[in-house]
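Would you kindly consider the sequence and fold I have copied below?
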Amino acid sequence: MQNLLFGLLTGSVLAVAASGFALLRNTERFLHIAHGQFMALGALLALVLSPEIGAVAGIAVAVVATAALGVVCGKVLFDPVKHRGGNVLLFTSVGLAFVTYGAMIAIFGTTLRVSEIELGRARDVGPVSVAPGEVVILAITVVVVAGLWLFLGRTAMGRDIRAVASNRELAHVRGVAINRVSTTVWAVSSGLAAVGGIMSGVVGSVTTESGWGYILLVLAAAVLGGIGNILGVIGAALLLGVVMDMSALVIDTSYRPVVAFALLIAVLLVRPQGLFSFHARKEVAA
């Protein structure tokens, strides 16, 4: 049961980050490979700032800074080439990932960093030992998922985002402010990447190399859940986390990513559209 708890924590980190990844993909129509680097950047900023200005302020500044960076990158790097299609956007994102990675090495170095935020003393709750900080992380995930659901389903901006995700051209004709939607999505997606990275840094550790591992697992969760269904992606992320950590009972923990992709391949062989997608995925025209 202890491994199940660890799996839920891992899945929570993935769920928060993957929801932002799926949101951006559905509206901007490309796979944002630099999303993993934004996760690492948010985590590193929080770890560096927290001892100086306090944990809450450090985390808030890290999330806002990462969200702002996402908006700037969207306007400066991606909007000018958006008309060239998904392939160009994809490779632009790959280039941004390497630039961000290099900048993080120059600023933060390559040292392994561990958060100074304490999870607290673990207490036995039935068959598992649970620390207060772990409960907080699970609660944050619930709040983020519920907040995203309410934002997309109950607000005017959320309706505009869903309209753009469904049919960008029709939404434009109907008077939806496409640029405002794009700015909002970049901010929310990048902010969620930072939150996911910070959560990962609190329960474990983070280095400038972490972004590459993050994006692989986020991609796996997005494809497994059915990338057009954000709630499905969140469910798949939780499932991946549980499967990876439960596998530690029988195999070495270094094989956790292998287990994740083995599950992904097995599911896609049976259900190519993903576990929680009701429609087969369609190729996006480049």
In short: DSSP finds eleven helices and two strands in the chain. The radius of gyration is 18 Å. The first strand starts at residue 123 and ends at 125.
